Amino acid sequence: MKKLLLILPFLAVISCTHENQKVTLNFDLNNQSSTIGRDRSVVVAVLDERANKNLLGRKKFSEQEIEISPDINLANFLQPKIIQNLMRRGFKNGDDKKIEIHIESFSYIAKRGYPIGVSKIDANFKVVIQDKKTGAKFTKNYGMTSDSKHFIMPLEATDAETINVLLRDVVQEIVSDDSFLESLVK
Predict the structure, then answer these.
(1) Predicted structure pTM score
(2) Is the distance from CB of 110 to CB of 60 less than 8 angstroms?
(3) CB count in 10 Å sphere of residue 85
(4) Under a CB-based contact definition with an 8 Å cutoff, are residues 68 and 82 in contact?
């Protein structure tokens, strides 16, 4: 009887019907105060260029697959985070420099396995900064990839944490990159 009670939760996990899930995007950037911007004005545009903007990833269960989508538009979520970070660094709203952050790809995939399941997440962003006065352009690609192993399948909370951490890390890498900041203050 004790063995049956131990096996029942496991059977419940693997036999559930699987529904698409929404991930709450929620992270904060390291917003250090500084005067590096010296009141230079910037305008920020985040452009989501992925084919399916409502899809962050997929979970595969043998024959079945579910979609993982964000609770809000990814570009609309990232833009104020980036603006807030730059404002705390001494930049102000204006149009001396135009910053375009292109979300070229973002993909999360989790696969069930016995006893170990796997997940992989990767993101590629392209940053273009244009000086309105001189016409000079700065372009740089940023990307990250992460692989994880899970017992059978990651939980929804694990999916959300993995997605938020990778997004935070990519955006933090962009706003903290010396060449990015240097191109803004030139």
Answers:
(1) 0.84
(2) yes
(3) 21
(4) no
Closest CA to 85 of 14, 24, 34, 9: 34
- pLDDT profile of the chain (186 residues), mean per 10: 53 58 90 82 95 92 88 95 93 92 95 86 96 91 89 84 94 93 89
Domains of the chain: 40-185 (3.30.160)
Report residue 91 CA to chain centroid gap.
Answer: 24
Q: Which residue is listed with tokens 């990778």?
A: 166
Percentages of the chain per state (helix, strand, coil), in multiples of 5: 30, 40, 30
CA–CA separation, 163 and 155 (whole Å): 12
Given a contact cutoff of 8 angstroms between Cβ atoms, the answer to whether 95 and 132 are in contact is: yes
Residue type, 126: K
Please give the pLDDT value at position 15.
46
Which amino acid does the sequence have at 41? S
CB 42 within 8 A of CB 183: no
Cis peptide before 9 (omega within 30 of 0): no
The pair of three-digit structure tokens given for residue 185, joined into one six-digit string: 């203050």
